[in-house]
Amino acid sequence: MIVKGYRGNVCAKKSQELASRGIYVFNYLCVGCREHIEWAYNKMLENFSKGKNIANKEHLEMMLILSGRRQIKDAIALCSSEASENIVAISTDEFELAFPRNDKMIEFDEKKLKHLKITQWRNKNCEMFFENSAMLELER
């Protein structure tokens, strides 16, 4: 899998067009770390293959998983690339976006925990994002 961070944002229409090409872009604040987005991608594929998906589009399903939210509108509000300062993109194929590259967007940052309102911190690290996402799985 290829994961890249970029400075800038992508409008909803462009995000949907990229998703149709297998490139999924999200607000960097929803991506706890590289492992988190890779796990969300694989979980999305698994959900669709088992018919356990909530959303009818892959990029929306990933937003649900990344945010740990069950409501699509809530996940979009948190994970949309449109209103974000920076983005993280993932694909199985090589890609390049027309923004300055900055892979620091993929790294763990406490600001990301606050964005997703993850307040019960045992350890301030990427594991907290997996726990947040796993709560959605328990509700399915």
Structure description:
The structure is a single chain. The chain is α+β, with helices and mostly antiparallel strands. The protein has one domain: PF0523-like, CATH 3.30.2380. It has six helices and three strands; from the N terminus they run βαβαααβαα. Strands 1-3-2 form a three-stranded antiparallel β-sheet. The chain is globular and about 40 Å long. The model has no long low-confidence stretch (mean pLDDT 90).
Task: Summarize this entry quickly.
The protein has 140 residues and is α+β, with helices and mostly antiparallel strands. The protein has helices spanning 12-20, 34-50, 58-67, 72-79, 110-115, 127-139; strands at 2-7, 24-27, 86-91. The protein has a single domain, classed as CGI121/TPRKB (PF0523-like, 2-Layer Sandwich), CATH 3.30.2380.10.
Q: Which whole number gives the mean pLDDT?
A: 90
Roughly how many Å apart are the termini?
26 Å
Number of helices: 6
Which CATH class?
Alpha Beta
Give the topology, please.
Layout: E1 2-7, H1 12-20, E2 24-27, H2 34-50, H3 58-67, H4 72-79, E3 86-91, H5 110-115, H6 127-139
Antiparallel strand pairs: 1-3, 2-3
Helix pairs in contact: 2-3, 3-4, 3-6
